[in-house]
Amino acid sequence: MIRVIGAGLAGCEAAWQIAKGGEDVELWEMKPEKYTPAHSSSDLAELVCSNSLKALRIESAAGLLKEEMRRMGSLLVPCALRCAVPAGGALAVDREEFSRMVTDAVEKEPHIFLRRGEVTDIPSEGITVIASGPLTSDSLAEKISRLCGGNLSFFDAAAPIVTAESVDMEYAFTASRYGRGGEDDYLNCPMNKEEYEAFYDALVHAERAPVHSFDVRDPKVYEGCMPIEVMAGRGPDTIRYGPMKPVGLRDPRTGHRPWAVLQLRRENREGTLLNLVGFQTNLKFGEQKRVFGMIPALHRAEFIRYGVMHRNTFLDSPRLLDADFSFRRDKRLFFAGQMTGVEGYMESAASGLLAGRNALRLSRGQEPLILPEETMMGALSRHVSGSVTGNFQPMGANFGVLPPIEPHIRDKKERYAALAQRALLALASYGEAVGEYFAGVEPVV
Questions:
Q1: Is the pTM of this model over 0.70?
Q2: Contact by Cβ (8 Å): 30, 137
Q3: Above pLDDT 70, what percent of the chain?
Q4: pLDDT tens digit string along 344-384?
Q5: Tell me, what DSSP letter sits at residue 209?
Q6: CATH 3.40.50.12780 is right for the domain spanning 2-151+315-434
Q7: Per-domain residue ranges for the chain?
Q8: Shortest CA distance to 303 belongs to which of 165, 155, 157?
Q9: 21, 56 in Cβ contact below 8 A?
Q10: Are 136 and 29 in contact (CB under 8 A)?
C-alpha cells in the first residue's frame, strides 16, 4: 500500500491518481485532530488564501495548466468546474462546496483509505508521497528539515472577506476589466486621488499584528502573496499599478477611469460574501476595519473574516528533488505541493498529480513520467528540479517557463495560443509514447 501524507490539494490529487491506477493508498490527514493556524474546516482540500484558481481560458498559462491536468485525469479540476462562481475570465469556486465535493469523492473511492491523525515521522519503509503542505506540523517539519538539510521560511497572507449587503452601492459599481466575463463578476470600489492618498497614508502607518511560531528576525515575504501594506511600502503608486489598478474600468458616476480601484470577488455561489482581491494583509484586525473602511464603498463593511498571516515553508528543491518529484537520496519518497516550490492552488495539485502517478509507476517497476518541457506541467517540474538560481523561489504557471516558439510570433495573444496548442500536442504525443491516454477529448473551454 502506498502512503500519502496530507490531504490538501496535492495530497488528494496524488491519492486519486494512485487509486485510479488500481492500487490501494493510505491517505493521512491530521484534521480534525489538529489544525494549522490557517485552517478551520475538517474537509479535505481546504482553500485558505483565496477562492480563485486563476484564469480558465487555455490560451493563458493557468488555463493551460488546468487543461493538461484535466486530460491527465485530475480529480480537482472537474470538481472546481462544477462549483464555480462568476469571476470574469478566472475560475473561482465556492470554497466550502469545493472541499465537500473533493472530500466526498475521496471517501467514496474504494482504493483510498482515509486516516485521520497526525503523522509525526517519515515512514522508513514503503513508497510515500509527502504532501503535508506549507504549514506542516512542527514534528514532521523537523524530520523533513533533518532529512533535507534544512528548508526555507517565508510569510504568507490571506485577504479579508466582507458581506455583500454591507457594501455601500452608492460608491461601487459592477464590471469586469475590459468587459471580460460577466458584467457583475466583480464589484468595484473606486477612489479619487484625494481619497486614495488618505487611504495610502493610513495603510503604510497602520499597526501590524505580531507573527508567532517562527523566526521573525529575518522574514521573507513571497511576492505572489505579499501583504498589501508591505507592497504599499514600496511607494505610493505600487498598489495603484498592482491590485488597485484602475485600467479597463470606468466609473459610471463620473464617466472617467478612477484614480484607484479595489475589486471585490464572490466568495460563494450565492454572492453573499465578497473577497478583497489582492488585499492579503497582516494588519491588526481593528486596523483592517479602520483602514479598509476608508475606501468609500467599505465605510460600513461587515468583516466576516479578517486577513491573517502565517508561516510557509518550502524545500530547496533543485538540490533535493528530481523532475518526477522523487527525493534523490531515497527514490521511494516523493514530495508534492507548495512545499516543493510550485506556487498556486492548481500548481500544487498538478505536482500532486505527477507525484502520485510516479509513485504508482514506481510500485509497478515502470519508468517515471517526465513530461515534455513544452507542457506547463513539465516546465514547472523542471523548475522545481533544475532551477539554477542561487536563491530558489516558488514559481507559478507562466508562459515564461516554456521554451520559446519558433519562428517568433510578435502578437502576444497569438503567441500564447500557439504555445498552448504546442503544449497539448506534446502532451498527447508523450502519452502515446509511454502508453498513457492523455488526449482524445475536447477542451473544457
A1: yes
A2: yes
A3: 90
A4: 899 999 999 999 999 999 999 999 999 999 999 999 999 89
A5: P
A6: no
A7: 2-151+315-434, 161-215+234-309
A8: 165
A9: no
A10: no
| Helix (H/G/I), strand (E/B), else coil: 152 | strand
Tell me if domain 2-151+315-434 and domain 161-215+234-309 are identical in fold. Answer: no
**What is the longest distance spanned by two Cα atoms in the chain?**
67
What is the per-residue pLDDT for 151? 58
Residues 333 and 122: beta-carbon distance below 8 Å: yes
- Assess contact for 33 and 116: CB atoms under 8 A: yes
Q: Is 126 left (phi over 0), alpha (psi -120 to 50) or beta?
A: left
Give the pLDDT score at 154.
Answer: 66
Output the pLDDT for position 217.
39
Least confident of 97-106, 221-230, 309-318, 357-366: 221-230
Cell numbers linked to 244: 488597485
| Cell numbers placing 19 | 487509486
Contact 275, 264 (CB under 8 A): yes
Class of domain 161-215+234-309: mainly beta
**Residue 243, pLDDT above cutoff 90:** yes
Please report, as a single letter, which amino acid is at residue 441: V
In a 13 Å sphere around the CA of 192, the CA atoms on its Cβ side amount to: 6
Sign of the CA dihedral with 439 first, then 441, 444, and 445 last = positive
Predicted confidence band of residue 240 (pLDDT cuts 50, 70, 90): very high
Instruction: Return the residue matching grid coordinates 528539515.
Output: 145
pLDDT tens-digit readout, 281-297: 999 999 999 999 999 99
pLDDT given for residue 41 in this prediction: 83
Residue 89 DSSP symbol: T
Burial class (CB in 10 A: 0-12, 13-18, 19+), 94: buried
What is the rounded distance in angstroms from the CA atom of residue 85 to the CA atom of residue 426? 32
Rounded distance between C-alpha atoms, residue 116 and residue 109, angstroms? 16
Who's near 389: CB < 8 A, 6+ residues apart? none
Q: What are phi and psi of 23, to 5 degrees?
A: -100, 145
DSSP-derived secondary structure for 226-264: --HHHHHTT-TTTGGGTTT--TT--BTTTTB--SEEEEE
The residue to which cell 485525469 is assigned: 73
